[in-house]
Design goal:
Blueprint (H helix, E strand, L loop, with lengths): L17 H7 L17 H11 L5 H9 L4 H12 L4 E2 H17 L6 H4 L1 H11 L5 E2 L1 H4 L12 H12 L1 H14 L56 H9 L6 H6 L13 H17 L7 H17 L11 H10 L17 H6 L9 H7 L15 H4 L11 H10 L13 H4 L6 H15 L5 H7 L2 E7 L5 E7 L6 H7 L6 H22 L2 H23 L11 H5 L1
Antiparallel strand pairs: 1-2, 3-4
Helix pairs in contact: 2-4, 2-9, 3-4, 5-7, 5-9, 5-15, 9-10, 13-14, 13-21, 14-22, 24-25
């Protein structure tokens, strides 16, 4: 790691001179007068970063700590920053470059100093050993101008990486809350739930704390974009953006092929995690009315999110980083509500898919898959009405630990369903406890069928792959949505249900028929391995339900297993 360098604070000013110093140097700036200071929040973030790097004047630190409104918020954030571990310098360089690419697409003006930061950081990375880590007080002087100001892209990159995505978002939300809170009311240390939005302000130069504050030399103060501020869509703007989904038929959209990234590139995983958390938060906010318009919009947003953020043109072997970064970065705060609905363009890989053993994608294959004599459109035996009308005494509760375990160990490279979700896309949520809790809560909503009919219809879609049988004929393999395709989870949960009868019914009417169906449609080369794994899981579940002690070789005694 890079040795920690503690910058020496400026000499203490003479009594009564703090105000003049605050106007000329950000390293001596105290809190603004009053308590309502609008965004951008450079007036808070820049002194906070200086204090964490031990380069803020002691008098200014005392003023912040003693402030009746911001004191507690300042102290908590400062303590977390000072305890932050070192961060890879290359990660910081990539974060600053990514943010500036987003700013450029949004039409923001950058000062000459800020525009040069990516090159400065890239030069640092080249001159250091690979994987070098650096603490905040080593990095801050290298991204600070002569007036002590830290540009917006550097502010956001430092806060996201050293403070953490969740705490940084909560800090911004708390500052926004200060605009709606009276001075007599103490500012909460945290705002729950935090709004997923960007951290740093939308300015290449700081917003003055008072009319008399001097502006950093050589910087400009561009007007904010008319559509939204850097804090992201909120209030009416967010409602209007979500309302654009009303005209979208999610089921019809998911029926259309769309080339997507199955595994997101490493440089977009952080913003992607925040975008997923944003969509999950919208689902939970609308959970009280599963059939309401807000729930319909939230489920459409979740189902179509991969198409909005991870679209990959099939004719292009590579996607330029700025084109991929922009929608994902905007997705952190709700600005990504823009569908990608391109026509499917066959390329070399799609022609390769038509080679054996896959069947040709023609009308004859479709008719073979729809043959009613082999695949009846109706069940052989209707389900008992009592089973269809069954309602458990307590709502189904999914195990958080099992959900996390399944997400961690889900195999890589699995084909996605119509929504495009894969384990690799959802796996970044494991790095954010709050986002993981939201995923668990949404999974329980899905398990309890607390969702709009339109969303259930879209989730029920599957992508079929036609396989040619060695002896002739066609076999179809259906790939469903990732959230409903994990039958392993069901088998592991059945023995934990308090009602034994419910567990047996679920095993009889869900797990076994589903597995038998999969065994009928799998290619012969894959049947043996799947059958062995499936049989072991079924027998393990039966052993627990029957309270039979399992052996290492077989979960059930041989005689019982044969029966």
């Amino acid at each position: 790691a890079v040795p920690v360098e503690s910058a020496r604070p400026a000499e203490p000013p003479a009594p009564g001179q703090h105000t003049a110093l605050a106007a000329s140097s950000w390293s001596t700036r105290g809190p603004p007068p009053g308590h309502r200071s609008p965004p951008p929040y450079s007036w808070f973030f820049v002194p906070l970063l200086h204090a964490a790097a031990r380069s803020l004047h002691p008098d200014a630190i005392q003023q912040w700590e003693a402030h009746p409104f911001y004191g507690r918020l300042w102290a908590d954030a400062l303590a977390n920053l000072q305890l932050a571990p070192a961060v890879p310098v290359a990660t910081l360089a990539t974060a600053v470059q990514t943010l500036q690419d987003v700013y450029a697409r949004e039409g923001r003006q950058l000062s000459a100093f800020e525009a040069a930061l990516p090159a400065v950081l890239a030069a640092l990375v080249e001159g250091l050993p690979a994987g070098t880590l650096a603490h905040l007080n080593w990095v801050l002087p290298r991204v600070t101008d002569t007036n002590g100001y830290v540009p917006a892209s550097a502010q956001e990159a430092l806060l996201e990486n050293y403070l953490g995505s969740g705490p940084a978002t909560a800090l911004t939300a708390a500052l926004e809350e200060s605009l709606r809170t009276s001075p007599e009311s103490p500012l909460p240390a945290q705002v729950t739930p935090p709004s997923p939005r960007a951290v740093a302000g939308n300015a290449a130069s700081p917003a003055p704390a008072s009319p008399g504050d001097a502006q950093a030399p050589g910087t400009q103060s561009p007007a904010p974009p008319p559509a939204r501020s850097a804090a992201g869509l909120q209030g009416r703007q967010l409602s209007a953006a979500l309302a654009t989904l009303d005209a979208v038929d999610a089921t019809a959209v998911l029926r259309q092929p769309c080339p997507l990234f199955r595994s997101p590139p490493a440089f977009v995983k952080g913003p992607l995690r925040q975008a997923l958390h944003f969509a999950l938060t919208q689902l939970l906010n609308a959970a009280s009315e599963p059939a309401g318009i807000d729930a319909q919009r939230a489920w459409k947003l979740w189902l179509l999110l991969p198409r909005m953020l991870l679209f990959r043109p099939s004719a292009a072997p590579r996607v330029p980083k700025p084109e991929l970064r922009a929608p994902v970065a905007n997705g952190r705060h709700g600005s990504m509500i823009q569908l990608r609905l391109p026509a499917f363009q066959p390329g070399g890989r799609s022609h390769a898919l038509l080679a054996p053993p896959l069947a040709p994608a023609d009308e004859a294959t479709l008719q073979a898959l729809q043959d009613p004599s082999r695949r009846p459109p109706q069940p052989y035996v209707p389900l008992d009405p009592d089973i269809l009308a069954f309602s458990p005494d307590v709502p189904l509760a999914l195990s958080r630990e099992i959900l996390i375990s399944n997400l961690r160990r889900s195999r890589r490279g699995a084909a996605p369903g119509p929504s495009g979700y894969t384990a690799e896309i959802l796996r970044p949520l494991l790095d954010d406890p709050a986002a993981l809790e939201a995923l668990h809560a949404v999974a329980e909503l899905l398990a309890r069928a607390l969702l709009p009919t339109s969303a259930a219809s879209a989730l029920g879609l599957g992508r079929i792959v036609a396989v040619s049988k060695p002896a002739g004929g066609v076999r179809g393999i259906v790939v469903g949505d990732f959230l409903r395709a994990q039958h392993r989870t069901l088998l592991e949960l059945l023995p934990t249900l308090p009602d034994l009868q419910v567990a047996w019914l679920l095993l009889l009417y869900c797990a076994c028929p589903r597995a038998q169906y999969v065994l009928r449609i799998l290619p012969p080369a894959l049947t043996a391995a799947f059958a062995a794994e499936h049989d072991h899981r079924i027998l393990s579940c039966l052993a627990q339900l029957l309270q039979v002690e399992a052996s290492s070789d077989s979960p059930l005694p041989a005689l019982v297993a044969r029966r």
